[in-house]
Amino acid sequence: MSHTSENNKQFIEKIWIIVGIVAFSVSLLLIIKTSFNVLLLVFAGVLLSVFFRGLSGFIQRKTGLKEMTSVGVSIVLSIIVLVGFFWLMGAKIQMQVEELSETLPKTIDKVRETLNASEAGKEAMHTISDEDHTAKLTNFASTFFKSTFGVFGDLYAVLFMGFFFTISPGLYLKGMVQLIPGKAQDEFVKLLNKLGTQLRKWLKGKLLSMLIVAAMTAIGLAILGIPLWLVLALFAGLVSFIPNFGPIIGMTPAVLVGLMSGIDTALYVVGIFVLIQFIESNFITTTIQQKMVNLPPALILIAQLIMGALTGGWGLVLATPITVVLLVIVKELYINKRHTPLKNSTDGNEKS
C-alpha cells in the first residue's frame, strides 16, 4: 500500500514538473512576442558594438595604443564623423528642401501632363491615384516607420547599448555563459566567438560595399550636375546597408532633386541608380561575399519580407545580420553535428 502511495506521489510530482515547464515555456514565448522589438534594439546595439570593437582593433594594430584607449578613440571618432556630416551638410539640405518644395508641385504637374499624353501613361496615373493603391502605400509607410519608443528614442537606446557592450563586453558575455549548463558552456563560448567572427566579416564586407556605392553614386550625380550630389551619394551609401530596398530609398531624394532640373534629368538619375544596383548586386556583393560571408540572395529577401512585416523598419534593417546569426547557429548546432557521426560511422565501417 505504501509502495502504491509512493508511486502516486512521484507521478503527481512529475505532472507538476511538466505543467511548470509548459507554463514557463508559454510565458517565455509570450514575453518574446511582446518584447520582440526590444530584442531587435538589443541586437542593433550588439551590432554597433561589433563595429566599434572592429574599428578599435584596427586602430590598436596601427597605432599600438592600449585596448581601452583604442575603444575610446573608435567611439569618439565615429561620433565626430557623424556629427560633422550633419553639421556641414544640414544647412545645404535645408536650403535644397525649401527650393524643392517650391518647384516640386510644378514638376509634378508636368509629369502628369506627360503621362496623360499616352494610354500607358494614363493607365499608370490611374493605378497610382487608385484609393486601394494609396492605402497600401500608406500602410507600408506606417509599418516601415513603426518603432518601439519612437525613432529618436530607439536610436538613443541603440547608441548607449552599443557603448556599454563595447566598453565591457566580457561582463555581458560572462553573464550569458552562466545561464548555460556547465557541460555546454565551452561549446556555447565557441558558438559566441564564431558568431562574433562572422558578424565582423559581414560588417566589413557591408561597409566596403556601402563605400563603393557612395563613390559610384557621387561620380554619377556629379557628372549630371545634380545639386547636393555629395550629400545624396552619402545617403545612398548609408541606406545601401539595407539590401534590395535600400537602393529604392536612396534613389527617392535624388530623383526629387533631379526633377528640379527637368523630367529628363530625373530619368537619368533613375538610370544611374539602376546601373549602380546592377553592378553592386552582380559584381561587388558577389566578390565581397566570396571573401567574407556567403549569403543566398533569395534567403535575404525572404528574411526581409518576414521581418519587415512583423516588426517594421528595424526588422527590415536588421534582417540580413539576423540571417547571418541564424545560419551560423544552424550550421554549428545542427549541420556540423549531423555530419560528424556519419563520418565516424563511415570510418568505423572502413576499418572493420
Automatic annotation (TrEMBL):
InterPro entries: AI-2E-like. The keyword Transcription does not apply. Keywords: Membrane, Transmembrane, Transmembrane helix. Its main location: membrane. It holds the Pfam family AI-2E_transport. It is a multi-pass membrane protein. Belongs to the autoinducer-2 exporter (AI-2E) (TC 2.A.86) family. This is AI-2E family transporter. The lineage of its organism: Bacteria, Pseudomonadati, Bacteroidota, Flavobacteriia, Flavobacteriales.
